[in-house]
Design brief:
single chain; 284 residues; alpha/beta; 6-stranded mixed β-sheet; 4-stranded parallel β-sheet; 13 strands
Length: 284
C-alpha cells in the first residue's frame, strides 16, 4: 500500500495540532507589503498582521503560492515515497490551483502520483475537506478513495461570515455578488457566504450582534437533519466574538467536532479585521 500525503494552502488555516496529527503539508500563500514578501503564517502571524495594519501607510497585497514552491513541496513528498493529494482554495478566488497544476507538470515522471482538487472554498470549509481525506487515509484509504472522500465533503461543507465593512473584499477584487451592497448604509453589517466558490451576499443586518445571530441561523438551517456535524469558528482579530459564537453553536446543534480557529493573514487582508464566521461539514 502506498503512503499518501495531504497538501493544502495556508488559507485553510487548519489548527497546527491537526496538521501535525495527520501530517498535512501547508503551502504558504504570499503577502506583499511594500518591499517585503512574506509567507502567510510563516513570516507573519495573524496577531502581527493586525497590529501592523493599524498603523500601516502602505496596505499589503497578496499573491498565490508560487509554482516553484508547489513543485518543491510535491517533489519532497515524492522523494519520501508518498503519493500526494492536494486540496486548494477555490480557483474563483485565487490562482493557487494553476500554480499546483504547473508545479506538478514540472515533476516529469512523478506527476501522475500527484492529484489536485479544487475545494471550491477556503478557510475551514476547505480545511474540513482536507481533514476528511486525511482521516480516511489514516483509516487505510487509497489515494483515489481519499480524493473521493474529499470530493464528497466538498458538497457537505459551507461557510457563512459577517464582515465589518466590504472595503477589504472590494479592494482585493474578491467581492463577487456582494458588490451590489457597496454604497448601502455604512452601519450595515453584511452577511456573506461562499457560493459556488465565490463570495456572495446573503443579506445585510443593522448590527454586528444580529449579523452573527443570522450566521448561526443560516448554519443551523444548512445542517438541519444531518449528522455528524463539524463546526469551526473563524475570525479576523475578533476572538471573543468568535468564541462566543462557537459556544452558542455547539450548544444549539448536536456537534461532533468543534474547532476554534482564525483566518490567515492573507484571508484577513481580504475579509478585513473584525470578520467573524462559521464553517461546517455536515452529514459525513
Amino acid at each position: 500500500m502506498s503512503k499518501i500525503a495531504l497538501v493544502t494552502d495556508s488559507t485553510a488555516w487548519i489548527p497546527k495540532d491537526l496538521t501535525d496529527k495527520y501530517n498535512i503539508t501547508v503551502a504558504p500563500q504570499v503577502l506583499i507589503w511594500g518591499e517585503q514578501t512574506l509567507s502567510d503564517g510563516v513570516d507573519i502571524t495573524p496577531q502581527e498582521f493586525y497590529a501592523r495594519i493599524k498603523t500601516a501607510k502602505v496596505m499589503p497585497t497578496t499573491s498565490q503560492v508560487s509554482i516553484v514552491t508547489m513543485q518543491s513541496i510535491f517533489s519532497g513528498l515524492l522523494d519520501k515515497g508518498f503519493d500526494v493529494l492536494g486540496v486548494f482554495v477555490s480557483s474563483k478566488l485565487s490562482g493557487t490551483i494553476q500554480s499546483a497544476l504547473q508545479g506538478r507538470e514540472m515533476l516529469g515522471k512523478g506527476a501522475d502520483k500527484v492529484h489536485i482538487m479544487d475545494s471550491n472554498s477556503t478557510a475551514m470549509a476547505m480545511g474540513f475537506q482536507v481533514l476528511a481525506a486525511a482521516r480516511a487515509v489514516a483509516d487505510g484509504a487509497s489515494l483515489a478513495e481519499a480524493k473521493a472522500v474529499a470530493e464528497k465533503a466538498r458538497d457537505h461543507t459551507g461557510v457563512y461570515f459577517a464582515v465589518e465593512t466590504l472595503e477589504f473584499l472590494h479592494r482585493g477584487g474578491r467581492i463577487g455578488g456582494a458588490a451590489r451592497l457597496i454604497g448601502t448604509a455604512l452601519n450595515m453589517k453584511p452577511v456573506l457566504a461562499l457560493v459556488d466558490g465565490r463570495v456572495e451576499a446573503i443579506e445585510r443586518i443593522r448590527t454586528k450582534s444580529k449579523a452573527l445571530d443570522r450566521v448561526l441561523e443560516l448554519v443551523t438551517e444548512k445542517t438541519k437533519g444531518q449528522s455528524p456535524i463539524h463546526i469551526a469558528s473563524l475570525h479576523a482579530n475578533a476572538p471573543d466574538e468568535a468564541r462566543a459564537l462557537l459556544d452558542r453553536t455547539t450548544k444549539a446543534l448536536n456537534v461532533t467536532e468543534s474547532i476554534f480557529t482564525e483566518v490567515s493573514p492573507v484571508v484577513g487582508n481580504h475579509a478585513g479585521p473584525g470578520t467573524v464566521g462559521l464553517a461546517y461539514l455536515a452529514g459525513m
